[in-house]
Structures are given as structure tokens and as C-alpha cells.
Amino acid sequence: MERTDTPALLVLEDGRFFRGSSFGATGETFGEAVFSTGMTGYQETLTDPSYRRQIVVATAPQIGNTGWNDEDDESRRIWVAGYVVRDASRVRSNWRSNRSLDEELRAQGVVGICELDTRALTRHLRERGSMRAAISTTELDPDVLVQRVLEQPRMSGANLVADVTLTAPVVIPAQGTRTHKVAAIDLGIKEMTPELMARRGIEVHVLPATATLDDITALGVDGVFFSNGPGDPGTADEAVSLLTGVLDAGLPYFGICFGNQIFGRALGFGTYKLKYGHRGINQPVQDRRTGKVEITAQNHGFAVDAPLEHDTPTRWGAARVSHVCLNDDVVEGLELTDADGTVLGFSVQYHPEAAAGPHDSAYLFDRFIEVMDAHRTTGENA
Length: 382
Ligand SMILES: NC(=O)CC[C@H](N)C(=O)O
Description:
By secondary structure, the protein is of the alpha/beta class. It is built from ten helices and 20 strands. Strands 10, 11, 12, 13, 14, 15, 16, 17, 18, 19 and 20 form an eleven-stranded mixed beta sheet that branches. The protein has a seven-stranded mixed β-barrel with strand order 1-2-8-6-4-3-9. The model has no long low-confidence stretch (mean pLDDT 96). The chain binds glutamine (GLN). The site of glutamine has 12 residues, from strand 16.
């Protein structure tokens, strides 16, 4: 990998700044500075649409070792607003690597910075919270750049779904015999999610966020899925009302991350912004039904505000917190059951599709199938 000697500057909205070297594209970029603790999986991280308008700081000290390949993208492009690494690996070494990370960042116009103290930067964000930031190779005066940062919109109040969602439906065929059909609402979906459903015999109809309840019911689906996605869940009113209609229609529901926050809102809970969020691939989560702990991949800056102590009545049945993060008791999953205890819908704040990340939570895709099957049986008996 060629490293330029072009200087670059990173400035945070509170005035703290770091000087380093240009990495990837040159230019100037703005976003919310957040840190991710994943030691692997930078290609999946950079192509995760949930990172729209965020400048991601890698806490792993060296990034780029495995280059960039043509298989691991989680969507059609890189979405991060900027990338911050301590040491950009000079060498790429992997049998699947097609080009270097630096080349890919430049080809996609993504501005980065390296050769700065990412440990100090991460500690600052951990103590003060995620905040607006800029990286520039053209404006190297921190006082000037911080003024531009202060003019940028905050992540709180940001509605970014329209930036990332598909414009037309896409069908992912079931692998092997088709056993189920699901509508997956694309709020910023990662490709591994429909892939893991398809492997289990589900035909997945990925629909734009503008899809209506009629679009969904016309497909004759067995269940509905809402994906991960960028921005503040407090702004996702359209998705909340669509999901309310889905639950009214009695369709089984499964949601991931943004899909958990939207489920929470449809159930009547609020959402709030975490100080610095959960981003990484080794976050411990407890399934409260079984007591089992999963090591999970996570990427969220907001969370659902729901009581851990008791169930909450809703018009469909009882809602409860099914999973919690063992680091800080943040809500990591929700479940809705009817009077007979049948699951009507469930969701998790973390990433069972695990791209990148551990595979502990893949069982949740099987649970979705069980919930759809139970619903079919009930439907037949009714
Ligand atoms: N990965 C996601 O779906 C993130 C959801 C939401 N944008 C958050 O930051 O919490």
C-alpha cells in the first residue's frame, strides 16, 4: 500500500483535534465520530449502511492487512463518512484480496486519516460521548474546521433511511426447497441477513422503505422483517406506522437493530441516544429466558427505553425485554406474546447475521421460522 505524506486533520466539535496523514481519498468530510472495537471485519463495517454519516474510528491498531475483496461487501457501496485508523497496513495479504483498502477508499471517494493517536481519540469519545467531527486534507487550521463542524446536523433527529433504501424490490430466492416467504423492509439492510434466511428455505422479498401494508399482504408472506439502518429511530415514523399495520394484520415479525428500535416504538416505548453506543464484535448479551450469554456483533448509537422488571401490556399482547447487554443493561431484544404465550413478534438490537462477528446468535433466524410455523398452525386451527 502506498502511503502519502499528505497531512490530514481530524477535528471534534468540542475543539479537540488530531493531526495525522491522509489515508484513502483526499478532501474534506463531516459526520458523527464513533469508535468500533472490532478486531476484524473492516470491509463489512465500512459497507454497513447503518454507518451512513458517521466517521468510524477503528480501535484495532492496524487496519488493512487483508486488503479488499469482491465478496464481503454488505451492500452496494461504502457508507461511512470517514475512516480513522492508527496504522494503515503497508502490506495486504489474503488469498481473496483483490486490491488494497486504501485503493478502495480512494476509488469510492472516502476520506480517511491515519497516523494519529486513536487510543486517545477513543478515550475522549468514551468520556465525552460521540460527537460531530470532520477530517480534512484541505483545511489544516483546527479553528476554521471546527466552525464548519458546528454547522453540521447532529445524529439526533437525523432521518437517513431514504439515503440508503432500495428504490425497487429485489427477490432473494430460497436455497433448496422454498418453505417460507418473507417481506424484508430495507431500512439499510446488510446482505448477510437475506442470505441467512435464504439458506434456511426462506424466499426473501426485500422491499423499499416506502412499501405499504398492501404491498406486503399482496405477496402472501408468512412473516415480515425490518432491517438495521442509519439515523435516529425517533424520526422513523413511517416505519413505525407500517409495523403497527403489520402487527394489526397478525403477521409474525422479526427485527434487527433499527428493526428492534422500530418494534419498540410500535409497542409504545421510547428510544434515546446512548453516550457513545455499542460498536464491535464481542459484546456480551444475555437471553433472559434461558440465561444463556451470547457474544454478539453490535452497531447502535440509540436504544429502546423499556422496563426490565415487568411486562408491558399492548393492544396485541404483552411486550417484554428478552435480551440485555451485560456491560450496561441496555435493552438488546424485545418480544411480544399473545394471551396464550404465542410469540407474535421479536427483535434484537444486535446482529445475528454477524457480518462481521461471532455466529452465536444465528439461532434467531431459526426462531423466526418457528414463530412463522406456529402462526401457520394457529391459523389452520382457527
Ligand atoms: N445498526 C443499526 O440498525 C443502527 C440503528 C440506529 N441507527 C442506531 O444507531 O442505533
